[in-house]
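Retro notes - structure team

What went well: the batch runner handled both jobs without manual restarts.
What didn't: labels got mixed up in the shared folder, which is why I'm recording both outputs here explicitly, each with its sequence directly above its tokens.

Job 1
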Amino acid sequence: MTDIPSAPATGAARGTRSKGALAPTPAQSGTGRTPRRGPADPVRALMHRHRELCERAVDPLEIAAGLEAHGVTDRTAARFRHRDVFSLAEELYARVPRDTETPATARELTPQPAGWALWALLPGVVCALSVEGVRLTAGGVRFVAGAAGAVAFVVALTLTLRRGPLRAGPRRRPAARLCAAWLMAYAIGGDGLLAEAVRGGPDGGWPLDPAAATGLAFAVAPAMWCAHLFSVQAHRKLESSRGLAEFAGRSRPLLLATVALFLVGLAACLAVARLAYQTDEFMAAAALGVLLWLARLLAAHGFAGAASKVLAAAAGTELLALASVFAGRLPGCAALGRPVEAVVQTWGAGAPPAAVCGAAALALLARAAAVLARASAHCDQ
């Protein structure tokens, strides 16, 4: 039998064969599945990346705060087909399986000690006793009493700050502590030394300011109470907010109101101390108290870096102002001390530290208004 030549393929048949050649079957590709051009579920990769955060979260706000801490913004959320970070966190919270009973039970069984509210009075009591010990002694005994009182105050302040709302993280910053110690020491004896230096002294000792020491020590109590109030109210606003932007708008007025409330408590402590010791300098100690409180508040919420830098700048400026007066006594260097001497002669010895600490406190307040308005600053408090 002769072979009959096949008829030429029709256009439809040719199109079918060419289409089949362009789209290989799973067997021809060797992989068993066709390649995907893009993720059908864009949230899945984010869910796996932050699975630990999603599993331990007890509500979507904790996930939103964690995502914000990792740099996820509303613009990033739009790439995952969500209008903002809060709605993205709600989906992650709904999709990631978790043990819903363990975190809630752990939180219910965790004791919430309130003893720090009474411990907050300890630094003031220790400082008042130390000041009285120094006033009632003389000579070498006075020096020993002052040194023992200073050590006792440092121990009491450390024990107080380790519990309660102003406790900082485990990361230590010794430079910040040294700067805070210098600022506190200057508040006690710096004004007297500066006044004596402008007058050409000191020839021996110089007057100290027990009211500043006692007032600032007792102000630890309102500092901790106001920090606790801010933390509690911030958590309530975080739970009732519908998004991170709304929380930021509600938390900034809360911070300003808390600062004002602390300033009232600080002013009351300083006023009572001034009346007790018959002194009249006030503004420098008030500015220093606000500065130290804002620095500790930022450190307690995980922003110790900014606090350390501002404290170092304030301490360095005070030291430079005091050193410039003594440097002006050197031959040919009289111009170095003239600016500070003019300020002291016009407004008093408390004007330079008041200006320095006030400017530093305003800088920290601006920083706090920016970072403490983030939900991530309160997720671990």
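Job 2
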Amino acid sequence: MGEASLTTLHLLATDPTAVTQAAELARDGQLVAVPTETVYGLAADANQPNAVKKIFAAKGRPADHPLIVHVADKSLVTQWAETLPDYFDALADAFWPGPLTIVAKKRAHVSDVVTGGHKTVGIRVPNHPAMLALLQQVQSGLAAPSANPYKKISPTTAEQVLFGLSGKIAAVLDGGSCEVGLESTIVDISSPTPRILRAGPITKADLEAVLNMEVEEPDVHTVAVPGNVKAHYQPSKRLTILSTQALTSRLQLGCAPNTGILYYSSEIESILSGHRDINELVDLKLGAEKTKYAQGLYYGLHQLDQSSATEILLEAPPRTPKWRDVNDRLMRAAAQ
């Protein structure tokens, strides 16, 4: 039986047997989509290279793209990383479990399938009770990129996982909606000065406040880590990002029928409520505060992508350091 003809089980994390069933599948070399606080991940036992290879097949992901190994607590990091800097404990104690991934020199046993052929490995302790319980039961690291077809929108609900991967994976462990909604910050700690490789919920300022040292952050993230290709996180429909002023002008001029609008400001809400023909537009409002905006962004893109909308117009968020991860994802989502 081919991978495409699997029956994908929908396991509810509220069922006491669900985590045990998911752990059995992972130990058996199967793929299980798992909830984390960031986005849903597509997990395989990181100690089983043949199982990890299935991730790339299911997602259509290039084999040279490294994966993140998820572990139950910081004491397990040394099973995967060969050397850690003096500041590792401060980082782990401040931000784990949570949306921080570290990149360190890998131990010899860590498969090149997991690391994409790199000499380093990404490691994270996620902050979701079902995922942590699963990691405790599997008693291994779980390699888990986002549980979506390659370059498509990351899923923040089990239903979105099934929309993209049903029939290609053994199961999805449904732990509800993701609390954070965007992928983790990735920090390279393989050198004396930590360096951000992917913007995320934990900012440069957050890291420097804990470490009391400089953290490098390039203007554009291009290092080969998860999520750093130019075009990524993309809906199937054309996405255009407009300033509040530009979106206001488009709406006042009149949009084409079945235009999707993803917005957050009271200005746009006022225009929509005053001028909208309910049959012409499909609109969703995001939270104006950064954490709420981030939490709802992928969910909103998924909803509009699966709606009658033929294109999506998105109100651009602020361009401040706090919003760097949101703007990074949107830049890639709208890339042509």
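One thing worth noting from job 2: The longest strand covers residues 100-105.
We'll revisit the folder naming next retro.
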